[in-house]
Amino acid sequence: MFKAILIEKDEQGQRAALKDIDDAQLPEGNVTVKVACSTLNYKDGLAITGKSPVVRKFPMVPGIDLAGTVEASTHPDWRPGDAVVLNGWGVGETHWGGLAERARLNGDWLVPLPAAFTPAQAMAIGTAGYTAMLCVLALERHGVRPEHGEVVVTGAAGGVGSVAVALLAKLGYTVAAVTGRPAEAEYLKSLGAASVLARSDFNQPGKPLAKERWAGAVDTVGSHTLANVCAQAKYRGVVTACGLAGGMDLPASVAPFILRGVTLAGIDSVMCPRADRLLAWQRLATDLDLGKLDLITREISLAEAIPVAQQLLDGQVRGRVVVRVAA
Fold first, then answer.
1. Exposed, middle or buried, 19 (CB in 10 Å: 0-12/13-18/19+)?
2. 23 near 1, Cβ under 8 Å?
3. What's residue 234's pLDDT?
4. In this predicted structure, what is the pLDDT of residue 130?
5. The whole model's pTM is what?
6. Mean pLDDT of the chain
7. 122-161 burial code (b ≥16 CB/10 A, e <16)
8. Cα–Cα distance between 264 and 53 in angstroms, integer?
9. What pairs with residue 197 in β-bridges?
10. What value does the mean pLDDT take over residues 68-73?
């Protein structure tokens, strides 16, 4: 038996509860992992609360991230005792996820836990931090360098945004952090933001083409915010888009793209190829200040994950939440 958050659905609706589950109920997979830590992402909040149809089959154990130790394996790459990390691959949506003491998975989805991180630190990074690193890698790949000018990060006090600010600042970029929570200004500056801007400057309809401001951008919000960031990008600026907290729509024009040569780079962390995942985790091990990671993170128990999921959707959670699963 093991403890897990289980999401069930019937004619009365969807609900999540902490339950004891028999090992025989674990889904198919060629690697069984003893989970040390998981985390809460925005998608986990949607799954646990039922605010969006994230879960595709029931019952479901949520949690798109986990870090732990291999207990059993028939996969050629993994042996008992190996420390591993998982992000995405539909886990927590179509396959039981990490908010449980045990997980059975496809070994192809796993990557080695970098020696630089404990399981808790890896989950303080989680999909959010790994996505932030993918955004930074895309900016670099498209030629955005610190001397080219400011890089703006929207939703900066959230999980992706917080790690993006810390990464970019350590790499020498001048970072402008956008947030709807003025009280978080000092927090964002402690992560390395050079300036803090109000969300209200970005989340309303704007001009198709505005004054050039940003050499690069990490957008976690979408909708009007993403449209305004694109409209304010410099000539040949690069905007990475990885989130939809403000909506799935994009009320923009083609003007920034055909008149300024702006690049809009979509960032997907769920089905990202293994080689890119390995590179992202290698770079996180060298480019993320672990002292800053401590500022970003709070730790909760598995039992606390359900109420904190609602707080996350309500915008009451700063940075990253680590769920300590192992006793």
1. middle
2. yes
3. 98
4. 95
5. 0.91
6. 95
7. bbbbbbbbbbbbbbbbbbeeeebeeebbbbbbbbbbbbbb
8. 27
9. 178
10. 98
Report angle CA 233, 236, 242 to the nearest 5 degrees: 60
* Residue 327 pLDDT greater than 80, yes or no: no
- % residues pLDDT > 70 (the chain): 100
For residue 294, the one-letter residue type is: D
Position 33: which residue type?
V
Rounded (5°) CA angle 191-192-196: 95
2-113+293-324 CATH choice from 3.90.180.10, 1.10.1410.10, 3.40.50.720, 2.40.50.320: 3.90.180.10
Strands 297-301, 13-21: pairing is unpaired
- CATH of 126-266, picked from 3.65.10.10, 3.10.150.10, 3.40.50.2000, 3.40.50.720, is 3.40.50.720
Residues in a beta bridge with 73: 31
Is a pLDDT exceeding 90 seen at residue 281? yes
d(CA 209, CA 82): 52
Domain spans of the chain, in order of start: 2-113+293-324, 126-266
* Reported confidence tier of residue 51, pLDDT bands at 50, 70, 90: confident
